[in-house]
Amino acid sequence: MLLDFHEHGAAHLPGAAAPFLDALRLLAERQPRDRAGIRLHGVAELAELLAADALGALVPGMRPVRAILFDKSPAANWALGWHQDRTIAVRARTEQAGFGPWSVKQGLLHVEPPFALIEAMRTMRVHLDPVPEDNAPLLIAPGSHRLGRIAEGDLAAVVERCGTATCLAAAGDVWLYATPIVHASAASNGMRHRRVLQVDWSSDSLPGDLAWLGV
């Protein structure tokens, strides 16, 4: 199935990260091993790789607001059920109408904002390793990004109605999707790494004294 970003909420960009692949792999090698996901903040070389004249060129007018390195491996393997991404990372807790509940993930503050903010965001998945069928490709429900905030109990029905698309990738490929799209992934069946740099992007400012954590 050939996915169109505006219709389906996701698009495959083959080789879009190939010029940056060596630098991305070097950055990944410097991170702690055998952890499911590492939230990256304050990494100078990452900020350079996400600049407007680098990977940021794929999302013009947006800035990176959160980055996570996922590494499924024989030592850290997991499955993730169908869900929507609903939280953002911020610098400090400041009470603001419509923002909550709050949570802390790996020492970083997260909050659920009004869903309209999530709907305007984009998520980029940069593949550092090949992702064939047996290496835990992302699964998405095409078109689900247009359905607003979906109750947990309704997710299965949404997936049944929208169907499922499998996001295979070669090393250096990028998948770009609307942040609220319903998605999942299985555990890897292989005995190799599946490293993915996931970056959230936004063009919005936060209200009051709230500030994006950024990268």
Number of helical stretches of at least 4 residues: 5
Shape: globular
Helicity level, as a percent range? 10-25%
Strand order of the largest sheet: 1-11-8-13-3-2
Strand composition percent: 25-35%
- What are the segments in which pLDDT stays under 50 over at least 5 consecutive residues? none
Radius of gyration using CA atoms only: 17 Å
The biggest beta sheet is recorded as: 6 strands, antiparallel
User: Average pLDDT value?
Assistant: 92
* Multimer state: single chain
Question: What is the string of SSEs from the N terminus onward?
Answer: HEHEHEEEEEHEEHEEEE
Distance between the termini: 33 Å
Find the structural class using helix and strand composition: alpha+beta
Number of strands: 13
Describe what you observe in this structure:
It is a single chain. This protein is of the alpha+beta class and 215 residues long. Helices cover 15% and strands 28% of the residues. The chain is built from five helices and 13 strands. The protein has a six-stranded antiparallel sheet with strand order 1-11-8-13-3-2. A four-stranded antiparallel sheet has the order 4-12-9-10, with helices on one face. A three-stranded antiparallel sheet has the order 5-7-6, with no helix packed on it. The longest helix is centred in the N-terminal third of the chain and has 9 residues, at 21-29. The chain starts with a helix and ends in a 13-residue tail after the last strand.
